Amino acid sequence: MFLFLMSSGFFMAQSLGNLTYEWKLVQETDGVQFFAKYQECKMSEQSPKPFDIAFLKIVNNTNKDVQVAYNFVTEYTEGCNGCDGGDETHFTQTIPANGSIEDDCNFTQQGMAHSVRNQNFKGGWNFEKVSITNVKID
Questions:
Q1: Please, which pLDDT band fits residue 5 given cuts at 50, 70 and 90?
Q2: Rounded to an integer, what is the distance from CA 34 to the centroid of its chain?
Protein backbone atom coordinates (compact mmCIF):
# COMPACT_ATOMS: atom_id res chain seq x y z
CA MET A 1 0.00 0.00 0.00
CA PHE A 2 2.78 2.43 0.86
CA LEU A 3 4.50 1.81 -2.49
CA PHE A 4 1.23 2.38 -4.34
CA LEU A 5 0.72 5.75 -2.65
CA MET A 6 4.27 6.79 -3.37
CA SER A 7 4.11 5.73 -7.01
CA SER A 8 0.70 7.27 -7.67
CA GLY A 9 1.87 10.59 -6.18
CA PHE A 10 4.75 10.61 -8.63
CA PHE A 11 2.36 10.91 -11.58
CA MET A 12 0.42 13.88 -10.18
CA ALA A 13 1.08 17.20 -11.90
CA GLN A 14 3.51 19.38 -9.99
CA SER A 15 2.16 22.83 -9.21
CA LEU A 16 3.54 26.24 -8.38
CA GLY A 17 0.91 28.81 -7.46
CA ASN A 18 -1.81 28.61 -10.12
CA LEU A 19 0.51 26.87 -12.61
CA THR A 20 1.40 23.26 -13.40
CA TYR A 21 3.75 21.61 -15.90
CA GLU A 22 0.80 21.43 -18.32
CA TRP A 23 -0.67 24.35 -20.31
CA LYS A 24 -3.63 25.92 -18.50
CA LEU A 25 -6.03 28.46 -20.00
CA VAL A 26 -5.57 31.80 -18.22
CA GLN A 27 -7.66 34.11 -20.38
CA GLU A 28 -9.58 34.22 -23.65
CA THR A 29 -10.40 37.41 -25.53
CA ASP A 30 -11.87 37.82 -29.02
CA GLY A 31 -10.71 34.41 -30.27
CA VAL A 32 -7.25 34.66 -28.74
CA GLN A 33 -6.35 32.34 -25.87
CA PHE A 34 -3.57 32.82 -23.33
CA PHE A 35 -2.21 29.65 -21.71
CA ALA A 36 0.42 29.43 -18.99
CA LYS A 37 2.56 26.74 -17.38
CA TYR A 38 5.74 26.57 -15.40
CA GLN A 39 8.92 24.67 -16.07
CA GLU A 40 12.23 24.29 -14.29
CA CYS A 41 15.05 25.68 -16.43
CA LYS A 42 18.78 25.35 -15.85
CA MET A 43 20.04 28.90 -16.23
CA SER A 44 23.80 28.39 -16.01
CA GLU A 45 26.43 25.88 -15.00
CA GLN A 46 27.16 28.03 -11.92
CA SER A 47 23.60 27.60 -10.60
CA PRO A 48 23.31 24.19 -8.96
CA LYS A 49 19.50 24.31 -8.98
CA PRO A 50 17.13 25.35 -11.78
CA PHE A 51 14.91 28.43 -11.86
CA ASP A 52 11.11 28.11 -12.00
CA ILE A 53 9.91 29.91 -15.11
CA ALA A 54 6.32 30.83 -16.03
CA PHE A 55 5.76 30.45 -19.78
CA LEU A 56 2.99 31.75 -22.02
CA LYS A 57 1.44 30.26 -25.12
CA ILE A 58 -0.84 32.49 -27.19
CA VAL A 59 -3.28 30.83 -29.59
CA ASN A 60 -5.06 32.73 -32.35
CA ASN A 61 -8.30 30.91 -33.19
CA THR A 62 -9.34 33.47 -35.82
CA ASN A 63 -8.91 33.33 -39.59
CA LYS A 64 -6.69 36.43 -39.73
CA ASP A 65 -3.29 37.41 -38.38
CA VAL A 66 -3.59 39.45 -35.19
CA GLN A 67 -1.35 41.74 -33.23
CA VAL A 68 -1.80 41.15 -29.51
CA ALA A 69 -0.66 43.65 -26.88
CA TYR A 70 -0.75 42.61 -23.21
CA ASN A 71 0.88 42.81 -19.79
CA PHE A 72 2.32 39.56 -18.43
CA VAL A 73 1.71 39.91 -14.68
CA THR A 74 3.25 37.77 -11.93
CA GLU A 75 1.68 38.02 -8.49
CA TYR A 76 3.33 37.07 -5.20
CA THR A 77 2.21 36.99 -1.57
CA GLU A 78 4.55 39.92 -0.96
CA GLY A 79 3.71 42.03 -4.02
CA CYS A 80 3.17 42.13 -7.75
CA ASN A 81 5.29 42.47 -10.88
CA GLY A 82 3.29 44.21 -13.58
CA CYS A 83 0.12 45.08 -11.69
CA ASP A 84 0.72 48.75 -12.48
CA GLY A 85 0.58 47.99 -16.21
CA GLY A 86 4.04 49.47 -16.81
CA ASP A 87 6.28 49.06 -19.84
CA GLU A 88 8.49 46.43 -18.18
CA THR A 89 5.75 43.80 -18.47
CA HIS A 90 4.02 45.11 -21.62
CA PHE A 91 4.59 43.15 -24.83
CA THR A 92 3.21 42.93 -28.35
CA GLN A 93 3.16 39.74 -30.43
CA THR A 94 1.98 38.98 -33.95
CA ILE A 95 0.13 35.67 -34.09
CA PRO A 96 -0.65 34.07 -37.47
CA ALA A 97 -4.21 33.08 -38.39
CA ASN A 98 -5.16 29.82 -36.65
CA GLY A 99 -1.63 29.69 -35.24
CA SER A 100 0.18 30.05 -31.96
CA ILE A 101 3.45 31.10 -30.36
CA GLU A 102 5.05 29.83 -27.18
CA ASP A 103 8.39 29.76 -25.47
CA ASP A 104 10.54 27.25 -23.61
CA CYS A 105 13.86 27.14 -21.75
CA ASN A 106 15.66 28.37 -24.90
CA PHE A 107 14.00 31.80 -24.35
CA THR A 108 13.55 32.72 -28.01
CA GLN A 109 10.33 34.78 -27.67
CA GLN A 110 10.50 38.07 -25.79
CA GLY A 111 7.57 38.61 -23.42
CA MET A 112 6.63 34.94 -23.17
CA ALA A 113 8.54 33.94 -20.02
CA HIS A 114 9.07 35.24 -16.47
CA SER A 115 11.30 33.83 -13.77
CA VAL A 116 9.03 33.30 -10.76
CA ARG A 117 11.41 31.53 -8.36
CA ASN A 118 15.16 31.05 -8.07
CA GLN A 119 15.62 27.72 -6.28
CA ASN A 120 19.20 28.75 -5.41
CA PHE A 121 17.97 31.64 -3.24
CA LYS A 122 16.24 30.99 0.07
CA GLY A 123 13.83 33.62 1.32
CA GLY A 124 12.55 34.94 -2.02
CA TRP A 125 9.01 36.04 -2.72
CA ASN A 126 6.25 33.41 -2.73
CA PHE A 127 4.71 33.06 -6.19
CA GLU A 128 0.88 32.89 -6.37
CA LYS A 129 -0.25 33.33 -9.96
CA VAL A 130 0.16 34.78 -13.42
CA SER A 131 -2.44 36.93 -15.09
CA ILE A 132 -2.77 38.73 -18.40
CA THR A 133 -4.00 42.33 -18.29
CA ASN A 134 -4.50 45.28 -20.65
CA VAL A 135 -5.17 43.01 -23.64
CA LYS A 136 -5.60 44.78 -26.96
CA ILE A 137 -6.10 42.82 -30.19
CA ASP A 138 -5.73 44.43 -33.62
A1: very low
A2: 9
Q: What is the mean pLDDT of residues 110-135?
A: 91
User: What's the pTM value of the predicted model, to 2 decimals?
Assistant: 0.85
Q: Which residue pairs from 134-137 have beta carbons closer than 8 angstroms and sit at least 24 positions apart in sequence?
A: 134/69, 134/70, 134/71, 134/85, 134/90, 135/27, 135/29, 135/32, 135/34, 135/68, 135/69, 135/70, 136/68, 136/69, 136/70, 137/29, 137/30, 137/32, 137/66, 137/67, 137/68, 137/69
Contact assessment for residue 129 and residue 75, using Cβ atoms and an 8 Å cutoff: yes
Residues paired with 73 in a beta bridge: 131
